[in-house]
Amino acid sequence: MFFTYEHSHCVHAPETFEKCLEGLPTWCHRLTSILVYLRHLPVTQSDCYVSLSLPTASVQHFRTKTVQNTKNPTWNETFHFTIQSQVKNILELKVCDEDNITQDDHLLTVFFDVSKIQLGETIQLCFQLNPQGKEELEVEFTMESSPDPPENIVTNGVLVSISSQNERDMNESVTLALNSLPIQEKITIAEDRTIDLYTKANEWTQGLCFRPRNLDARLGFDLCTDEQDFLQNRRKVVAAALKDVLHLEEDLQEHEKCHHRLSDQRRAVNQGQNPLPIYLALNVKDKVATKDFREWVEFTPYEVGFLKYGAFIRAEDFGSEFFMGRLMKKLPESRICFMQEEQPDLPEKPYEMATCMFTPTSGLSTALRDILTDRPAVSKYHNFLRGFQMHNEYIQQEHFTKWKDTLLDTSPNDLRGKSEHLELVDAAFFFETSCPPLMRPERKVDVIIHLNYTGGSQTLPLEQACRYFSEQGIPFPSIGLKDDENNLKECYMFDGADTPGAPLLLYFPLVNDTFQRYVAPGMSRSAAEMELGKVDISSFCSPYSTREVSLKAEDFNKLLKLTNYNIMNNENMILQALRMAVARKKQAQSQPVSQAQSSA
After folding, report:
1. pLDDT tens digits, one per residue of 494-552
2. From CA 473, how far away is CA 363, in angstroms rounded?
3. By C-alpha distance, which of 410, 407, 406 is closest to 393?
4. Which partner from 269, 297, 326, 592 sits 20 to 30 angstroms from 172, CA to CA?
5. Cα(95)–Cα(63) distance, rounded to whole angstroms?
6. Residue 507 located in a structural domain
7. Are residues 422 and 324 located together in one domain of the fold?
């Protein structure tokens, strides 16, 4: 049996990806895979076959014939793929035992990174399926140049799509080469007859051939133009306010109910008159624990996107259908209230994935996993990354590694390009703080005012965030609240002096301390007002418990007055943090001048 599948969409690896690079011509490679044999299966006589999947070359799964009643099946079957040489190509070899009555038994799966095969090389590999046993699967691979012409791509070093420069005339005729017809299959073509040939383009070929226009998604890790303009305007507004509040002698230098949609908030920030609202959600996988897979999704009035992939779309397009970065079907934008957050030794090619084997779990394990990973509130939206592929060297891209924090990040076939939907949950499923978008270096955050509204421990969310950013290598102030945990103050300042590049952090835990005795800073409560100072925020019966899905108007107003008081009562600490931030800015601006003078 000889099977051929051709697909010609290839990419080239540029040296830098700070911005999206378009129109990069690249050649394709032709991968030949020969399934030879499987030896010493640790089961009784079986009816084995191997299923092959290379998602970056085909949306289909292919398989060998079934070899009956043997522990040592031999196939010698050949499969061809035209691959995208610089896309991360992971071949999945799934060994199954055919069953005519029940579902086929999945014995094991081998994942192999085909970038290990050099162009012009033919190698025969034996995959050891059990370190303690003799089971092995032998496969022969050949990598050759493809005769297909080069194509142009768009990439930011993590995601890859086809460029608009590949536009083709949809009216041109198509010539079918005879050597592309299946071998050993009988095809009769009558003489002097007109043959009507009908073809059906699946979503993959439609995305490549019939959607050649420019991307509607933005690939890049910098801020969008709208947010950059906002920051320019906001700096002017904030500089004037700080000059007045901090009594500076010189100007700072630049270096109700929700019935609105996210994009509507642009009007409130278009001149920098208000702070930029940034929202956060977690993208998760069904039946996969949050600790095993999660991705930060950021929402602003301008864009919605993934920090890890550097892929963004306009806020008004969120929820619409995309394929390979192009808007396929525009859907109405959702209202906001419906939107549910020592260096190791490197291998010679750090982007290569190690070959690994997966053995399926038992039925009991699967049932337990389903129970433990069930999430009561998951919002599904069309996946705007659908159709994108992972770049061959994505794993060492600086911006990707900054947010790479789960095992599945090293399994490109499991990442978001082929999923139809995003599954978004509250960021609190991981930790109860929304700081990650603020830690993008492009935003140059100097001071974070963290208002905690978490029930339960008031120190745990901040400790979790501190530990997470430390593990990711993202500058964040060190936190020390252990000694105060049972008697928390209204405000803490962490200057981050021991962590270069970290912002100042003002942390307001949700506590009811002096508010019980004061209506406003310096204004004591009368006997009649003492009851208004009793805001239950920590007991089991608290109206603010996470068990409560809504708040009464009275309880909401009490919470609002409490948090407003805590901020006003710590005005001096806020001003101190702002002065420190201004001083750091001035020091940072003077250092290049001093260094230039000393070198001169």
Report:
1. 998 888 889 999 999 999 999 999 999 999 999 999 998 999 988 888 888 777 767 88
2. 39
3. 410
4. 326
5. 10
6. yes
7. yes
